[in-house]
């Protein structure tokens, strides 16, 4: 299997714990940064992180990266991706944008431009385009912008990983499960029998 590049976001302060998870799952080139960890690996590694990590929020697969100076540059980068090879246009999409010191005037506008680029490429290649579903999309596309670089990811996780457990009742937890798992790991706790009464 060929090596792919990924980014796994996590709660701030838990990056080193997540880096341990990724290494245990076979991740290579593990690079913690504030808010997550970049890594590389084959698809089996990606699947294992999605199944086994209690710290990752999701696993994003990097499909393109490039420098940019304007919305048109980002549009060209996104339209240059062979989206029809990645998923079927019958699947719905949603675009998410995160930016740090990006020079663009409007993140809402660049979100629309990314959506247009995906749909325009699908129209050209497949003769049809995916629908947008902001509530429950089949495919989540993430754009991350720094001051000079744009990176496009496809979410391999779907719902956030802290929602993957089967629960009889759906209620708002006082804190997200991956944050709680990280706090427990930081204390040194591990599963086992409860302490004996004295």
Descriptive keywords:
198 residues, alpha+beta, VC0802-like, 2 domains, seven-stranded mixed sheet, 6 helices, 7 strands, 24% strand, globular
What features would you describe in this structure?
The chain has 198 residues and is α+β, with helices and mostly antiparallel strands. It folds into 2 domains: 1-59 and 157-191, VC0802-like (2-Layer Sandwich); 68-80 and 89-155, VC0802-like, CATH 3.30.2130.30. The chain has 6 helices and 7 strands. It has helices at 15-24, 43-52, 71-79, 83-86, 107-126, 177-187, and strands at residues 4-9, 28-33, 36-41, 60-67, 93-99, 139-145, 149-155. Strands 2-3-1-4-7-6-5 form a 7-stranded mixed beta sheet. A hairpin with a 2-residue loop joins strand 2 (28-33) and strand 3. Helix 3 packs parallel to helix 5 (107-126). The radius of gyration is 19 Å and the shape is globular. The termini are far apart.
Summarize the structure.
The chain has helices at 15-24, 43-52, 71-79, 83-86, 107-126, 177-187; strands spanning 4-9, 28-33, 36-41, 60-67, 93-99, 139-145, 149-155.
């Amino acid at each position: 299997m060929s090596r792919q590049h990924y980014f796994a976001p996590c709660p701030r302060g838990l990056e080193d714990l997540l880096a341990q998870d990724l290494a245990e799952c076979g991740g290579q080139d593990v690079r913690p940064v504030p808010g997550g960890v970049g890594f590389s690996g084959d698809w089996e590694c990606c699947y294992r992180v999605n199944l086994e990590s209690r710290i990752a929020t999701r696993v994003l697969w990097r499909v393109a990266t490039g420098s940019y100076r304007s919305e048109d540059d980002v549009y060209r980068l996104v339209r240059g991706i062979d989206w029809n090879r990645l998923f079927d246009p019958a699947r719905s999409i949603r675009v998410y944008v995160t930016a740090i010191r990006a020079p663009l005037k409007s993140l809402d506008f660049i979100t629309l431009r990314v959506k247009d680029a995906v749909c325009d490429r699908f129209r050209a290649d497949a003769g049809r385009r995916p629908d947008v579903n902001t509530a429950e999309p089949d495919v989540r596309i993430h754009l991350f912008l720094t001051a000079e670089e744009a990176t496009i990811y496809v979410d391999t996780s779907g719902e956030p990983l802290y929602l993957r457990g089967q629960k009889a009742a759906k209620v708002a937890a006082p804190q997200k499960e991956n944050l709680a798992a990280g706090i427990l790991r930081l204390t040194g706790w591990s599963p086992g029998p409860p302490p004996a009464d004295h």
